[in-house]
Design brief:
This protein has about 375 residues and is an alpha+beta fold. It folds into two domains: about 260 residues, Zn peptidases (Aminopeptidase); about 110 residues, Alpha-Beta Plaits, CATH 3.30.70. The strands form four sheets. A six-stranded mixed beta sheet has the order 1-2-6-3-7-14, with helices on both faces. Strands 10-11-9-12 form a four-stranded antiparallel beta sheet. The protein is globular. Bound molecules: zinc ion (ZN). The site of zinc ion has 5 residues, from helix 3.
Length: about 375
């Protein structure tokens, strides 16, 4: 068994959990075995073959809600550019640990596990729960499965260990991904008047969405909603009239925005007859920084890192979009030892010394909660 969070990070990086296909089960069981040995009640839940998520519970003496630590076991693919480091060797150099998932977010999971082992040795009033999910990267499918099957139990506060260089993030915008499908009628390229050009229809849609505005003031912490035309695809060969063209939109939203309303605004602008499909629909997540628990998180982070945290938010989405509502929206923080700039990058690494720093932060947050100090 790994003797430190650093060792466990290396072991986890050596499991290839690139999603797709994910294959998180081996990593899930490796972590589950450690937690079981520490006294946790461990259950595995797979939403598909070899796609296990782990829920580990440690009870307290009182019948109060536990604190939940959560992270994801999967990683994104390696990308097209070759790596200069082996992405699964977990080599270290100059204080950095290299590998796919080192920052996003196997170091975070390893730090949670070692903090949890320590908390399990002490008496506690309230419980501690770890929810380690499969398939976050492609749209939180693992977390959504846990929520749907009703196995999450309760939580009174939540720590999401996504990469933040051990600085607290208090939320993130929602994500609404849309696929706009334009239909036409094919014909020979020499007789285009016999066809109906789907690519031209897609071009109309793109032009109409180019100056799309949301007409709402920016959120104090989350900023503005955005829309990005991520891809446009259509046509098979130069001498045919294309009968199908797709446009992909990535819309990032604020808490007060309704995704239904945004869909109808996009539909109204798109070329008539365009089919609209939601490929991802995740709400934003936001935790009020003036709340008592979050204030205590800030002071713990300041004491351990020596830096006063700002009220920042994460650029990416997290499982908090699913788990927060499933737990009745308890206060939460996004806080992990990985570097957010390294997430999804070629030659991803994490900074080794932040791993133990995260263990200390997590241990303090967990024991404060479990001993009923906040
Ligand atoms: Zn992540």
């Amino acid at each position: 068994m790994a003797s430190s969070a650093f060792e466990l990070t290396r072991n986890l990086v050596r499991f290839d959990t690139i999603n797709p296909p994910g294959n998180e089960s081996h990593a899930a069981h490796a972590v589950g075995r450690i937690l079981e040995a520490a006294g946790f009640r461990v259950a595995y839940h797979s939403f598909a073959s070899h796609r296990d998520s782990v829920i580990a519970d440690l009870d307290g003496s009182d019948n109060e809600k536990p604190i939940c630590f959560t992270g994801h076991l999967d990683t994104v693919p390696l990308g097209a550019v070759p790596w200069s480091q082996d992405p699964f060797a977990a080599e270290t150099s100059q204080g950095r640990l290299f590998g796919r998932g080192s920052s996003d977010m196997k170091s975070g999971i390893a730090a949670m596990v070692f903090a949890a082992i320590d908390v399990a040795r002490r008496p506690r009033r309230r419980g501690l729960k770890l929810v380690l999910t499969a398939s976050e990267e492609t749209g939180c499918e693992g977390a959504a499965f846990l929520a749907k099957t009703g196995v999450l139990g309760q939580a009174g506060a939540m720590v999401v260990g996504e990469p933040s260089s051990n600085r607290p993030f208090i939320g993130h915008r929602g994500a609404l991904w849309l696929k706009l499908v334009h239909h036409g009628k094919t014909a020979h390229g020499s007789m285009p008047e016999l066809g109906e050009n789907a690519v031209v229809k897609a071009a109309h849609t793109i032009r109409a969405l180019d100056d799309f505005g949301f007409n709402i003031p920016p959120h104090k912490h989350l900023g503005k909603p955005t829309i990005n035309i991520g891809y446009a695809q259509g046509g098979a060969n130069v001498n045919s009239v294309p009968d199908r063209a797709e446009v992909g939109l990535d819309i990032r939203t604020l808490p007060e925005q309704s995704h239904d309303h945004i869909c109808s605004m996009v539909s109204a602008r798109a070329n008539p007859g365009t089919e609209l499909e939601r490929t991802l629909d995740l709400q934003s997540a936001f935790s009020d920084p003036s709340g008592a628990w979050l204030r205590s998180v800030f002071s713990t982070v300041e004491r351990i890192t020596g830096q006063k945290p700002a009220e920042d938010t994460a650029p990416y989405f997290t499982d908090a979009a699913i788990l927060g509502p499933a737990y009745g929206n308890p206060p939460f923080v996004i806080l992990g030892p990985g570097e957010k700039e390294m997430a999804h990058q070629t030659d991803e690494y994490c900074v080794v010394e932040r791993i133990d720093e995260a263990v200390e932060i997590y241990r303090t947050l967990a024991s404060n909660w479990c001993e009923g100090r906040n």
